[in-house]
Amino acid sequence: MPPLLPLRTITVLALMIVAGCSSHKPDEANDNSPDTTHRAGEPDLIPVIAALHDQMYAWEGTPYQWGGTELSGVDCSGFVWRTLKDRFNLPMKRVTTSQLIHMGKRIQPDRLQPGDLVFFRINRQMHVGFYDTDRHFLHASASRGVMRSSLDNVYWKSVFLEARRLPNEHGARISFNYDEDDKNVLAKN
């Protein structure tokens, strides 16, 4: 086995040299990749994404219950309201989808940012969720409970109504879960 040791060492060193040579600082002027940095005047969306994912972690799989606002059962507007209240610390009374659609400003679907509200019309009823990332949104589905779905899904594309941005959401004081006990605290509030 001693002859393999130098061969392994040489292989590891060669890989490190190749990896080191292939990594370089990108030319910012010619970089066509999506910008994930915070630009002056634009909100830093990383805390918004983190808050949405934290809420999703706490609520994923919660069953749908019309009018519900608890971990035992929640509807779409109840999930949005609890997220605004629990994660973005926006003090507001329970709101319905019909009220949410009049809040904030309407935005074009190609301008969606994490935290924007997305609305759908399903059989003359409205449905709401939060835009997440990568053309996905978080919502309380009547059939599957709290979940993440794709806006590119044929069904969701066919019922998409509009998107709205709430101005107080970006830059809000954001709260996070830190352990399983927080799920119990959330359910009691």
Spatial order of the strands forming the largest sheet: 3-8-4-5-6-7
Order of helices and strands: HHEEHHEEEEEHEH
Helix content: 25-40%
Q: Give the overall silhouette.
A: globular
| Mean pLDDT across every amino acid position | 78
Secondary-structure content class: alpha+beta
Strand proportion, as a percent range, falls in 15-25%
CATH topology of one domain: endopeptidase fold (from Nostoc punctiforme)
CATH superfamily of one domain: endopeptidase domain like (from Nostoc punctiforme)
Cα-atom Rg, whole angstroms?
22 Å
Question: Could you say what the CATH architecture of one domain is?
Answer: Alpha-Beta Complex
Report the total helices. Answer: 6
Q: Tally the beta strands.
A: 8
CATH class of one domain, anyone?
Alpha Beta
Q: Major sheet: size, sense and barrel closure?
A: 6 strands, antiparallel
Distance between the termini: 64 Å
Low-confidence stretches: 4-38, 182-189
Characterise the protein shown here.
This is C40 family peptidase. It comes from Erwinia aeris. Belongs to the peptidase C40 family. Keywords: Hydrolase, Protease, Signal, Thiol protease. Pfam families: NLPC_P60. The chain is built from six helices and eight strands, in the order ααββααβββββαβα. The chain has a domain of 119 residues: endopeptidase domain like (from Nostoc punctiforme) (endopeptidase fold (from Nostoc punctiforme), Alpha-Beta Complex), CATH 3.90.1720.10. The relative contact order is 0.16. By secondary structure, the protein is of the alpha+beta class. Strands 3-8-4-5-6-7 form a six-stranded antiparallel β-sheet. Strands 1-2 form a two-stranded antiparallel ribbon.
